[in-house]
Specification:
Number of domains: 2
CATH architecture of the largest domain: Alpha-Beta Complex
Order of helices and strands: EHEHEHEEHEEHEHH
Shape: globular
Largest sheet: 8 strands, mixed
Structural class: alpha/beta
CATH class of the largest domain: Alpha Beta
CATH topology of the largest domain: Spore Coat Polysaccharide Biosynthesis Protein SpsA, Chain A
CATH superfamily of the largest domain: Spore Coat Polysaccharide Biosynthesis Protein SpsA, Chain A
Number of helices: 7
Number of strands: 8
Length: 228
């Protein structure tokens, strides 16, 4: 008698993406890197993302949703969560991508995710040769109570800690090119600074945002000095 082998279980993985204006070639690289391992790709867009963004995104997903931009990245990411059907959530930005070997390891991880949230290293190359490594919670279970907090430099970890989701640091890496050119860094800084200022005014007890605000102001002063 031949006994059929049951298919191996794997947690379904929903990737969440916030639409921003991005070079179409960079955008294609991001989508191509996650398409083989994503069970669902949820994209939240707004009128600032540009036509190129939507043209590329539609080639990879039907889960494309339009919302007005409210100057709140946590709100945008939480909207993506609302549309996510997967057992697990992964997030990636439009100027990032996974190398094929790393994507394969993420796929394998979903066979035994163990109910944990996973840190992945964001690796940012700079044009001067420096490389910045930042560990970030990039993959987490899609469970009640998991939500993004803080409008700028948004965080998922506080909510995961409150509901008791354990975390694990991996050696996986996501490649980020948003800091490669000085012009890109200045543009992101100028976008973020008003959001940081607003958050500090409305939530002065938020030490995390105040620290980021002070760093942003120091960077702004250095940019102005160089422009003189």
């Amino acid at each position: 008698m031949i006994v059929a082998k049951a298919p191996e279980w794997r947690a379904a993985l929903s990737f969440n993406i916030i639409g921003t204006k991005t070079d179409p070639r960079v955008l294609e690289r991001m989508f191509k890197s996650i398409a083989p391992i994503a069970d669902q790709i949820v994209v939240i867009g707004d009128d600032k993302a540009g036509l190129d963004f939507f043209r590329v995104a539609r080639r990879y997903t039907d889960d494309l949703y339009m919302y007005p931009w409210r100057n709140d990245f946590a709100l945008a990411r939480n909207r993506a969560l609302l549309h996510s059907r997967g057992d697990y959530i992964a997030w990636i930005d439009t100027d990032e991508f996974y190398e094929a070997a790393v994507a394969s390891r993420i796929y394998n991880l979903m066979h035994r995710p163990m109910g944990k949230a996973y840190y992945i290293w964001q690796v940012s190359a700079k044009s001067d040769g420096d490389v910045i490594y930042v560990p970030q919670v990039r993959i987490f279970p899609n469970v009640p109570g998991a939500k993004w907090e803080i409008p700028i430099h948004e965080q998922i970890l506080p909510s995961l800690q409150r509901i008791g989701v354990p975390t694990e640091l991996t050696d996986l890496r996501v490649v980020h090119y948003g800091y490669y050119k000085a012009r890109q860094v200045v543009q992101k800084h100028r976008r973020n600074l008003p959001l940081l200022m607003r958050r500090v005014r409305t939530n002065p007890e938020d030490a995390f945002t105040r620290s980021n605000y002070e760093k942003a102001m120091a960077y702004e002063r250095s940019v102005r000095r160089r422009a003189i």
